[in-house]
């Protein structure tokens, strides 16, 4: 099944809003065997919408997903365009208008006159309810193309697709043909070596792709032959990628680490320098993290490394703030101060300033102390300040994960 | 001047990669009076590329920007498509191939055979050098349409536009017609009240838009009449939006706060609970923040609020960890411990769990203590865990900014 996506809005063309709707539709529709062949964005211009929609209908796609241009301030240009294109009629839905009035009354707001247009609907359309907003969606069938007209607000569009379009119009059991294994702490080329044999073995029925990010390398498995068992093959690759593989699809390191902490009944605390609080932030992105995350100390200045984390002054004076020894003392210090089972630390030079010949920008030491082990790892991530901090955080979370596995 | 953007790649259609190139092009070209009228994405499919590019050329745009499909693994499908479409010829650039070999040698890698294709160029094209990668760009003139073919990697594409296309092919002085004022700490409707009179006064020569985000409301000023003075009008609106207006265009609160701290020779430290380190992270996003940021303590557990921040036990027992009193003690505590001039604190319930009838999910207290003032503000941001944390962080940075202004 082929689909086209038409997104409407000057904001999208001028670049003030980044279109995330069409990529969300891409990944969401894939398991339903609906492939987007074409994505198109036009402005709030009646003729442009009509002519581009006409082209898409001429090309006989199975589905056309339209988003945007349904707000009360946009003069409902999307509806008017499809009215003209399909030679349809706009009718006023008294019943829905009363709901709208009620909706505004509950918020003690007088309904703006402009919202009247939101109760105008194409006569031949069936309505797609909008749980999260005031603009209704519409479904139309033109020749063999199903047209879905939806609001551009991502939360409203997604709810409409998940709760109305997929169950009522697509009505198929989704088949996942794609699974992504997430890894951390290994380079693409080394990861590839570990699975070369497996990739050759399964090359007829699957397609594979390595997707390197700053946060780790993902490995995508795409089933081509529907008779093959995707999960079984995923397990084989996952096994071969251990201990670097930590999860699949949308799993995050902080989630996986959180589960390991809970399973081992461990608590954790962090002592951060160059990461400035980002490790704590990522650990607490996870709901329920107060179960295992006690807290963190960001000691940006040397004084605070001593006063808050008990790093001995002479360690800093002898080895420097960015050193293996200081990283170790910071991890021990925060572990002792907070009585956590595991202490993590980072100290490094994120740049752009602060580098020297022996300690260049990018250098970072990451310390981890568990009840059984303690270690410091040295890295050089020289990719600019923000990526340095992201990579350091990811490495720290991954080292903590591996330390618990080895415990 | 009208432009179209054609982005190429299965990854974009399937949604595994979000297209940020076209929005970057949108905002970058706007000051050059080049308006993108149409954005189009197709997959790595020769026929699709040819037929869609043909449509665009038929429509006689002034510019066509093409990105993607130039990598060595993509079989150079973009070049082949334009070769067929323009009835051109692909020629091998010996000189560039030698540069490529040298590039790989420097990295002690044998050049993969596939990279040979990257030295194939369209005969009628002039070359756009690529400082950040191995795929060259190309410029072609077809009838009156300038075609720019560029790599899909954002860093490579942006460099090519900024350093080659704008100076050599567009060759105009950019005129900014759009300026955005950033505000924080005020709702859209209240901000609107403050500038109703000004908006009416300038409604003939300017267009205005309110853009609400979780992080604050932006106000966009779009000059329609070229004879008007954009900066003067911006200043008038900025003045009317004080003290909520904190910057323009891409200014961030953490930058503006950082400058205020430097100008006042102040240092800052944070005591975080529900924000988990995010305030420290955002403050240290700014290069050079070690000038004023001393450090932060994230005390997620009550024990750490007492042991690390000296919050008296009976304050927590009497008023609770999420209370005005605890927020105040946390801000004072971190200020004393770190000897910073300014202490900020947050304590709240980000959810999804942890709420009670009297202290619901979303409740948060933000404390700020300066040499002259101390205050705690109470908010209820009930929009889900991550947005709660972002909004709390933004509010805290903004309160600190206002506290310094009042100092």
Descriptive overview:
With 407 residues, chain A is an alpha/beta fold. Chain A folds into three domains: 2-170, Molybdenum Cofactor Biosythetic Enzyme, Chain A (3-Layer(aba) Sandwich); 178-248, Alpha-Beta Plaits, CATH 3.30.70; 253-406, Maf protein, CATH 3.90.950.20. The first copy, chain A, is built from 14 helices and 17 strands. In chain A, the strands form four sheets. Chain A has a six-stranded mixed β-sheet with strand order 2-1-3-8-7-6, sandwiched between helices. A five-stranded mixed β-sheet of chain A has the order 14-13-15-16-17, sandwiched between helices. In chain A, strands 10-11-9-12 form a four-stranded antiparallel β-sheet, with helices on one face. Chain A is elongated and about 80 Å long. The two termini of chain A are 50 Å apart. The mean pLDDT of chain A is 92. The interface between A and B is large, with 70 and 70 residues. β2 (35-42) of chain A pairs antiparallel with β2 of chain B, so a sheet runs across the interface.
